[in-house]
Amino acid sequence: LLHAQGLQRLQSLCMDLRHIPTVREKGWYLALMAPNIKGPNFAWLDPSRLYCHPQGLQDCVADLLRPFQGDPIDMVAGIDAMGFILGAAAAAALQKGFLAIRKAGHLCVETVTQPYTDYTGREKVLEVRSDAILPGLRVLLVDQWIETGGTMRAAIQLVEQLGGVVAAPHPCPTGVAAICIEDSEGGRWIQERYKCSHCVPPSLQPRFSRHQ
Prior knowledge:
Layout: H1 2-18, E1 34-35, E2 45-46, H2 48-52, H3 54-65, E3 75-79, H4 83-94, E4 97-103, E5 111-117, E6 123-129, E7 139-146, H5 150-161, E8 175-181, H6 185-193, E9 195-197, H7 205-209
């Protein structure tokens, strides 16, 4: 019986990953994400199953890039670690290069660093290689999620420290993209200053910001 239940659950998951709704409205793929069952030290939702769904991933990337259609983007940068997935997919879709913004201690070349506080309140440091961004380079910054905004703000500071452009007075040449930008103090700070894109429909934004 337990074996049969386990097999049924696996088959259900496989069917879920194959299913494509007849009408694909913006954010339909958000239902593929799984809730946190491991406690407060983990993110409240896990988008990794979304990335396993071929159409879900394609539509997520397309929704993220739609506001930047026609904008001059020179490079896509993704933030360690889950931002690498969406960032690399966005770079491939745009046919642009991809820059990895790493947690400190992983790069064996000359870097610049920026300390920050992540969504759990832990002090960390981001780093990026110092030779990848030339003055005036227009960078689209991508992460999986913006909760308190600390990680994205540190990435913005790194790009701008090297002379890259994340956004400028209107019209913005490029900006910031994430599956969700929560209505937090840090999230609002970013949205007020940079051109932003996310996948959460307005009707669901209050629930996502409250982690419901």
